[in-house]
Amino acid sequence: MSNARNLSKVEVDTNGDIEVGSLGNANDASALTTGTLGTARLPAGSVIQVVQGVTSTEVGTANSSPVDTTVVATITPTSASNKILIFVNISEANKTNTNSSTRIQLQLWKNGSNMTIAGKSFIMSGNLYTASASNLRATLGFQYLDSPSTTSSLEYRVYFLSNDATSAVYVQNNGSPSTITLMEIAG
């Protein structure tokens, strides 16, 4: 039987993935000739999955209470020890007045609640203030590494508000697309 396989190199990992090695140890990805490398075998820091949400719906508010930007994405972690790396890019953030103190503030929400970091509400403030110009536009972005400790579905959504509660601010002005990218990172 010259073509027979050595079954001592077949393994089933903790995720139920079958791994077959041909030369060397089946724990070594370079030895795999068939099957898949189970996520349990990936080193810490490896990207497990990537999800992206895109919207171009223009939204505006002159309120100091958070309003949904419609920037949203959902991910389900494969392990409770994994982390979620979040990248947010808000395009065409805009104000339409000359109030020098007007700022747009972004908030990151998870599963319907404003996230807190070190006991503080997660707020990223965009500097849209100027003494004379109106229709000032900017692209705002932030990143955050979340440790959700769950394998349940997670919805990350971005809200925004006008810090002075009187001046209008906008996101996705003129239909410009904004994105949120979620990356599951092996713990």
Poorly predicted runs of 5 or more residues: 22-26
What number of domains? 2
Indicate the radius of gyration in whole angstroms. Answer: 23 Å
Structural class: mainly beta
Strand content: over 45%
Average pLDDT works out at 80
Quaternary class: single chain
| H/E element sequence | EEEEEEEEEEEEEEEE
The helical percent reads: under 10%
Global outline: elongated
What is the CATH architecture term of the largest domain? Answer: Sandwich
Do you know the CATH topology of the largest domain?
A: Jelly Rolls
Helical run tally: 0
Characterize the structure shown.
- This protein is an all-beta fold and 187 residues long.
- The chain has 2 domains: 7-41, no CATH class; 47-185, Jelly Rolls (Sandwich), CATH 2.60.120.
- Helices cover 0% and strands 50% of the residues.
- The chain contains no helices and 16 strands.
- The protein has strands at 10-12, 18-21, 32-35, 47-55, 59-61, 67-75, 83-95, 104-110, 113-114, 116-117, 120-121, 123-126, 136-146, 154-162, 169-171, 178-185.
- A hairpin with a 5-residue loop joins strand 1 and strand 2 (18-21).
- The chain is elongated and about 65 Å long.
- Mean pLDDT is 80; it is low at 22-26.
Structural topology:
Elements: E1 10-12, E2 18-21, E3 32-35, E4 47-55, E5 59-61, E6 67-75, E7 83-95, E8 104-110, E9 113-114, E10 116-117, E11 120-121, E12 123-126, E13 136-146, E14 154-162, E15 169-171, E16 178-185
Antiparallel strand pairs: 1-2, 2-3, 4-16, 5-15, 6-14, 7-13, 7-15, 7-16, 8-9, 8-12, 8-14, 10-11
